[in-house]
Amino acid sequence: MKPLTLPRHRLYFDEPIVRTKVSRVRFPKICPVCGAQTSKTTRIFANPGHKIWLRPGLDSYLNPYGKNHQTNDMSKSFLVEVCEDHSISDNAEMRMRSLSTIIASIVAGASIFALFYAGADYWAGRPVSSWVYSYLLILILSLVFVYVSFQPSALEASFKIIGFDFEMQYVWFALSNPTYRDSFINENSMNAELVTWIVKV
Questions:
Q1: Nearest Cα to 200, choosing from 11, 51, 12, 17?
Q2: Whole-prediction pTM value?
Q3: Cβ(139)–Cβ(108) under 8 Å?
């Protein structure tokens, strides 16, 4: 029985990304956002079950024994050193995003009642009730709140975990600050390299 081969394609990057060993990764003592000296650490989480990339040269999604290489039940996190200005709290970010989602869901769920009353006014030949317009304003504001809360922070925009290989030995980072990227390569000179493309399943 032949191993199952999934469709793959190359994904190219405008700026080079970093490929390094998970077990030996070391982060520079400068902020990945601004390059300032660090004073805090921030834990950045990744879910390899959500983003897994096929490294060049790996031909099969399954090993010869038919066992899946993916580790969907695992999650990885990295402690990254940052400056005072760009330190973030994962709990605070998650709370704000969860709150915005709940509020938007509740407000959007009330849409059926607003439509019902607006329709009743229309068919009765009456002007649409003023509270319907107030509701629409609240709905728009709640959607704006969701949009703003899910915008990436400066750290998230500067330091992105692209994914892992199937065996969880290598990780790809997208580092937007060239100075930090060069420092990262120097810090991990024996285990890191710059690449411009990866193979995606």
A1: 11
A2: 0.66
A3: yes
The token pair that represents 114 in the structure block = 């607003």
Nearest in space to 18 (alpha carbons), one of 150, 201, 182, 200: 182
Could you tell me the strand order of the sheet in which 159-164 lies?
159-164, 170-175, 9-21, 192-200
- Per residue in 67-116, pLDDT (tens digit) is 444 434 345 789 999 998 888 765 667 788 888 889 989 988 888 888 88
Cα dihedral sign, 53-54-60-65: negative
The conformational region for residue 163 under phi > 0 = left, psi -120 to 50 = alpha, else beta, is left
Contact 52, 164 (CB under 8 A): yes
Exposed, middle or buried by CB within 10 Å (0-12, 13-18, 19+), for 109?
A: exposed
CA angle (31 as vertex; 12, 174 as ends), nearest 5: 10
CB atoms within 10 A of CB 49: 13
3-state secondary structure of 149: helix
For residue 171, give every residue at least 6 positions away whose Cβ sits within 8 Å of its Cβ, in sequence order, or none: 19, 20, 21, 22, 25, 46, 76, 161, 162, 163, 164
**What are the residues whose beta carbons fall under 8 Å from the beta carbon of 168, sequence distance 6 or more?**
22, 48, 71, 74, 76
Provide the residue count of the chain. 201
Cα(174)–Cα(196) distance, rounded to whole angstroms?
A: 10
Residues 54, 70 contacting (CB under 8 angstroms): no
